[in-house]
Here is the input.
Amino acid sequence: MNRVHIKTYGCQMNERDSEAVAAMLRARGYRIVPSEDDCDILLLNTCSVRDAAEQKAIGKAGYAAARKRREPDFVLGILGCMAQNRGADLLERLPDVDLIVGTQKFHRVPDYLDNLRAAREAGIPIAEAIVETGSEEGSQNTIRDHMEGPGRRVCAFVSIQQGCDMNCTFCIVPRTRGDERSRPMEDIVRECEELAGRGVREVTLLGQIVTSYGRRDHPREAGASPFVQLLERVHEIPGIERIRFTSPHPRGFRRDLTEAFSRLPKLGEHVHLPVQSGSDSILRAMNRPYSRERYLEIVRMLKAAQPAMAFSTDIIVGFPGETDEDFERTRTLCEEVDYDMAYVFKYSVRTGTPAATMPGQVPEAVRERRNQALLEVLRAGSLRRSTSLVGAVQEVLVEGPDKTGMRLSGRTRANRAVVFEGPGRLAGSLAAVAITDASVSTLYGSLVPAGAGLQSAACPASL
Ligand code: 5AD
Here is the structure.
């Protein structure tokens, strides 16, 4: 009765939280199983950022609850953002749930499950669900355990900060994740060092607003924000070849950070820079404290630091009050930046946020039309950008076999997926791959034999 399956919805932070819960449960003797059909305990780690994400998890929980009625010992838990956002109210829709645990109490999950199991084994009937959605001092420091899995892991997520104080008017995150809290820099550096020792070559530093990292705990030093100081520290760790981070806020992109991209080669040539809208009046209504022009200036500064810089972004279409002209500004901004990739979201009303009650809510049909129009622009841009790489040699961090298991997959410095043929032992190493073909999101290529690698490709004089 100790087989646990964790199903994760939403962002990388949720994936990281699930992984940490899994590691804690394993340490207590639970088994983490890959299939929900074979589990005794099903934990749904949920997302609240859009209504669709909540509905998916509620649907799944309803389905699992039916199993619970057949098998009374089956345990069903809802964790994370939706648990935090809705708390005990979830029991009205889902009366059979055993456990509701919010975002600051993940580390308590093993205790709660132990208690449930002990009660079951003693034959004590459990009348009420456990609901735990309080805040907890220091909870940002509890997501630190990683799973020791079979095989070598090349990329890992590292949580550096939790919560957000920006109050974008569309966003539920301040409510689901709480106030901004940062982990101590030493703890993060130690975690990255341990990961490097276990074969990890790429770390992605995670937080809701990573560019604000440590702003209350560390002073700026020689013009460098605490976030840039952290990047410098992680950059020094031998074995770590690449450092990525998500999500930053444009507000945090001052010169110290844009220049870090020319100073710190492990940062590669990719930035995920959420813009949300290309219209100044919509940005104001969203409480995003930058203008279209300031955003484009950051893009120019980053392109100056790294001419090959690739950008990805998050965009919301159909925010309340968005006119055709506002949308047109978003469209032209996309063309101007020339994104590699973008996540486009139709605005979703989040109860309790300021935008939910703003006038000028945009009809679904219009939101859908703008969504499709933008996706088309972005798709064409992505294809153009990937096709432009055909014929080039790229430095690829090899992650392991691709989906089919027949070839290898990895990513370029600009975070493009690459699929190519090669021996499995290359996992975890940097390989030179000559790009021969491209689709919207993936590059295909062939391995450049060692010795004829990047250096000779870049220095024809040495051939
Ligand atoms: N509706 C649609 N998209 C949203 N996002 C956040 N809140 C909403 C909402 N209410 C998007 C933003 C954010 C990403 C994680 O989700 O683009 O950057």
Summary: The domain at 393-447 is CATH 2.40.50.140 (OB fold (Dihydrolipoamide Acetyltransferase, E2P)).
